[in-house]
């Protein structure tokens, strides 16, 4: 297997050339102290860590898997040690509150370098990169004493945290949460219930684990308005704040999964476990979801990171493996066959992976700038950013996770029979990336969030604003040499997006099934156009550089060619999404329950 | 996990109502003795065997996997025993030469019931269903003494056979075969070389294994015209024909695969193994490929069978699992949530699976009728059938295997987080079905076969004939009540197929990259239209039955509704294929080798 290489040059392209991060950072108080050298240092060091420390554990982690015996979880060889090095290097501190030991950094920088770790070893990240959500939630809602007790240890990475939402009877529908919390005389609570799908609910990395758990108080109203948030440590705190006696929490088992086998996905039993209420009673969902845009964007990035890694591995194989001859005649006449890379169909698959990896990266890092803005104190900036993220986050999460699966799947196809074998690591990519379309809300949930809650709700104007920016770009570059065909297609697609939205808006109130019937197609349409815009912008940058006779001609040419490929072969998929919208809900809703079973 | 149910009613629909198998069989000498009762008996018994004997081993087979130690292969618990029962019941004899112990039956009947076994346990089939290819090849090319030695034991199932094509350096490109065969004084040959990806190359089912092996004679010209076929038994034959001493063949290891883990995929070393030449020297590829249409159609069926099984499992979950409320208001007011099945997006995924499972079945069984005709002695009938299969086989193999993967993948999505867990069996479907897009020729290979070798080669007229039949159907039913919208779309799509083909024919000679650049899209286009035709025909049958107030109203209504869904939501995908053809090859071919690596 070819070693994973952090795509430093393409990250630099997104940062400096496409998205002008230096200008962006100059507007952020938080980033004022972070200079170009700091960015280079962080990017370079995390790249090294990803390549040298955790990438070598990618395949072995999958083969060994995580194990659970008598409530104890064992992670694969090298995982806990890699985490120790990660902590020693101080990486958990990055982007966390300085007053609790963190190192101030904008979210975007942290996300940018996360790609390397997600690509190198996503299962390891399921242990190591979970603390930020817990820290952010506690910082936003917890009492000062709770913050003092937990946050510094999470910032340093000494302790680790989890999010406990799902229960056996409830996944996407949190109305059904049954876990109970009884107030105790000591001001604490006793929490009882079973949580499933808890990543790193138990592990062998840290001496204590800080669980954030959704449960119902005795007087809770039914539904999601009766769910409260609790913080429950695996080991109770001694007076000096250190980890003491075991709390009444037990890992019953871990799941046997399609992929991410090195990650322990735990069934957790809370049996009168001691914990504290975080935030107001019955407002737990709100508190838990403070981090939702970030965690969904992080999931989009996981899809994108797998696409990048799959591309690299597939390309290496396609350059080395020989079969057949180029259609226009032999290329390697001295060899008995040409490299796979000569074959147009292999190139189609590689370019699809590449368009996804680079386009997905651009979209994720574009969204990350809005997260940075949403993190600032300037109310106007913040509110605009929140609106924009409300629109863009489900698009990025839904579309990029779907594309990530596609890219990994193409990797298997490029390698053919060898792709089906474990030793090449491509089939593992397919298995590992598959969950990104499910967790943090399935693609269906993202689609309904985007269309039902956002576009047909308060963010209709935000969509006009966003598509307006795209159309402005098109207008500005309508007569640019070489860019014209792309810009024309982009403007057309954007206008179709608007028209489609108008049609849905006019029809949906008379058909409550319409929105969920077309939501995934609507989301994918939005994803294809959003990334088309970033590809057109990338092409524009590349064109400009090529005009200046840049020494990196190969790089910019490839950027331009991938953009061209995207417009030729990927963007046309929006026609299918439009057809779905046109067809509406009737052919989905006509069949009776018994009809579904008919014929078997 | 819900037990698999053989879809007897839908098979009956295809057989009796859609494809009029009784009339078809009445034209076949081979089927003259097979009456309706025989068909019912065979279908019923194989269904029982699939449901009761091998389906229960589906999940356990995957968990246990096949193992290889010191050259000996162990299959999962119950596998060999199930094969013993299969042999005792006489199933290996079905459809094989009566003069060697077989039971005459048309290929189509055998294929029809294979679906149940492929759905119930595809990995088991990788052991049990391989003999037919070997029998057919030997019957067509081997000497009478070779036939006498091997065929009866393969027909009874006492011995089993393999096909040994692939080598470490060569997969799709058999030009690169290196395995050597030296003539010996005894008239036999000594074969030396390594073969990989050999399904059941070693196993614990049968006392002897009959390998059909491609190798080069000393005087062989290079390329595929220098490849000969040999039959090489694992154990040499005693004078009485029984299995004697070990031949110089060794299973070096088995592959660790994404799926089909219960099937032993072997690396086989032939080290001067004794064998016989089959057929003429240097003509081995032709002999090996005598069975190619059948094996490709069988692979299409594997994809379809997984789609059916995934549909059943997903539907059972969607009916039982509760989450959220129907968009138009609560359905199960007494429950705290509605069944998943109320949700339009869940129905979209289920209907996609169903449209694939039933449409794929119809396509496979439609092709199977042409195989029956190709097996007859009437030269005119046979030649027309061979032409039709030349066109249809790559379409069925390529498209149905792609759709089978899609259906299994949707199964994981319908189950959400639970779909990612092993216990529900859906993720196993994804892993198991994945190879169908690769073996027996990847989708890319099928596409180039269809477009390059067939449509732009000798089968252009066959395409006109086939599409002509579709257009005739459209003309006949253009004003049928209820069928009109479907027929209009079908005629439009068929005409677009013709136009697209004309355009390609006009362009391809000036661009050798064009055909391979668009071959997969062309193939998928052909698949969507072919199945649209079968869905329109299904709808026509269902309409007619509904008009007669059939007591099976639910079944025919569901058929009609699935057809409607297919035309609304699946067929529009052809627009993307057209766009690819329109775009041509330039955006695939522009990038240099170094460009592919740029940015990393």
UniProtKB/TrEMBL annotation, chains A, B:
Record domain Acetyl-CoA dehydrogenase-like C-terminal: where: 466-591
Domain Acyl-CoA oxidase/dehydrogenase middle: from-to ranges: 163-271
Known EC number: 1.3.99.41
Keyword Flavoprotein: yes
Cofactor: FAD
Domain Acyl-CoA dehydrogenase/oxidase C-terminal: 283-449
Reactions that this protein is recorded to catalyse: 3-(methylsulfanyl)propanoyl-CoA + oxidized [electron-transfer flavoprotein] + H(+) = 3-(methylsulfanyl)acryloyl-CoA + reduced [electron-transfer flavoprotein]
A Pfam family hit: Acyl-CoA_dh_M
Molecular function, one GO term: oxidoreductase activity, acting on the CH-CH group of donors
Enzymatic class: oxidoreductase
Domain (Acyl-CoA dehydrogenase/oxidase N-terminal): residue spans on this chain: 43-158
InterPro entries: Acyl-CoA_dh-like_C_dom (IPR025878), Acyl-CoA_Oxase/DH_mid-dom (IPR006091), Acyl-CoA_Oxase/DH_mid-dom_sf (IPR046373), AcylCo_DH-like_C (IPR036250), AcylCo_DH/oxidase_C (IPR009075), AcylCoA_DH/ox_N (IPR013786), AcylCoA_DH/ox_N_sf (IPR037069), AcylCoA_DH/oxidase_NM_dom_sf (IPR009100)
Keywords on record: FAD, Flavoprotein, Oxidoreductase
Source organism superkingdom: Bacteria
Physiological role: Involved in the assimilation of dimethylsulphoniopropionate (DMSP), an important compound in the fixation of carbon in marine phytoplankton, by mediating the conversion of 3-(methylthio)propanoyl-CoA (MMPA-CoA) to 3-(methylthio)acryloyl-CoA (MTA-CoA).
UniProt family annotation: Belongs to the acyl-CoA dehydrogenase family.
Name of the protein described by the UniProt record: 3-methylmercaptopropionyl-CoA dehydrogenase
Species annotation: Povalibacter uvarum
């Amino acid at each position: 297997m070819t070693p994973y290489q952090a795509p430093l040059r393409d990250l630099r392209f997104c940062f400096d050339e496409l998205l002008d991060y230096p200008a962006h950072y100059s507007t952020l108080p938080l980033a004022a102290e972070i200079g170009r050298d700091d960015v280079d240092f962080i990017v370079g060091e995390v790249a090294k860590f990803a390549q040298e420390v955790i990438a070598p554990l990618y395949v072995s982690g999958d083969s060994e898997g995580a194990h659970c015996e008598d409530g104890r979880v064992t992670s694969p060889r090298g995982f806990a040690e890699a985490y120790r090095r990660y902590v020693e290097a101080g990486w958990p501190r990055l982007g966390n509150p300085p007053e609790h030991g963190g190192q101030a950094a904008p979210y975007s920088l942290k996300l940018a370098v996360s790609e390397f770790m997600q690509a190198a070893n996503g299962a390891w990240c399921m242990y190591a990169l979970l603390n930020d959500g817990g820290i952010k939630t506690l910082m936003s809602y917890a009492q000062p004493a709770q913050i003092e007790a937990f946050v510094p240890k999470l910032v340093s990475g000494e302790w680790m945290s989890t999010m406990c939402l799902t229960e056996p009877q409830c996944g996407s529908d949190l109305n059904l949460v049954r876990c109970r919390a009884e107030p105790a005389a000591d001001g604490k609570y006793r929490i009882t219930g079973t949580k499933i799908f808890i990543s790193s609910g138990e592990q062998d990395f840290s001496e204590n684990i800080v669980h954030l758990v959704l449960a119902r108080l005795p007087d809770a109203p039914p539904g999601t308005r009766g769910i409260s948030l609790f913080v429950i440590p695996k080991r109770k705190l001694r007076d000096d704040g250190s980890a003491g006696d075991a709390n009444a929490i037990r890992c019953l088992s871990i799941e046997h999964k399609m992929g991410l086998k090195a990650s322990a996905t735990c069934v957790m039993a809370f049996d009168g476990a001691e914990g504290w209420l975080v935030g107001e009673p019955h407002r737990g969902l709100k508190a838990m979801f403070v981090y939702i845009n970030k965690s969904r964007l992080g999931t989009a990035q996981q899809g994108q990171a797998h696409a990048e890694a799959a591309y690299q591995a597939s390309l290496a194989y396609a350059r080395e493996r020989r079969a057949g001859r180029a259609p226009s005649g032999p290329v390697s006449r001295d060899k008995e066959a040409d490299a796979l890379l000569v074959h147009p169909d292999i190139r189609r698959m590689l370019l699809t992976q590449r368009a996804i990896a680079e386009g997905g990266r651009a979209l994720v890092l574009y969204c990350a700038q809005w997260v940075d803005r949403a993190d600032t104190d300037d109310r106007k900036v913040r509110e605009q950013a929140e609106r924009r993220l409300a629109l863009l986050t489900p698009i990025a999460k839904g579309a990029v996770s779907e594309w990530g699966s596609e890219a990994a799947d193409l990797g298997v196809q490029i390698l053919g029979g060898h792709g089906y074998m474990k030793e090449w690591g491509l089939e593992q990519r397919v298995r590992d990336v598959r969950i990104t379309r499910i967790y943090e809300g399935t693609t269906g949930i993202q689609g309904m969030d985007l269309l039902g809650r956002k576009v047909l709700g308060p963010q209709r104007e935000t969509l006009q604003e966003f598509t307006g920016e795209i159309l402005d770009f098109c207008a500005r570059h309508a007569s640019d040499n070489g860019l014209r065909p792309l810009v024309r297609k982009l403007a057309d697609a954007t206008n179709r997006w608007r028209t489609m939205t108008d049609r849905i808006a006019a029809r949906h109130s008379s058909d409550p099934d319409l929105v969920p019937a077309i939501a995934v197609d609507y989301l994918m349409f939005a994803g294809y156009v959003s990334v088309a815009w970033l590809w057109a912008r990338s092409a524009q940058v590349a064109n400009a550089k090529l005009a200046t006779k840049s020494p990196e001609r190969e790089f910019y040419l490839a950027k331009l060619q991938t953009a061209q490929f995207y417009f030729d072969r990927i963007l046309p998929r929006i026609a299918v999404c439009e057809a779905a919208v046109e067809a509406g809900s009737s052919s989905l809703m006509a069949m009776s329950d018994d009809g579904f079973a008919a014929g078997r």
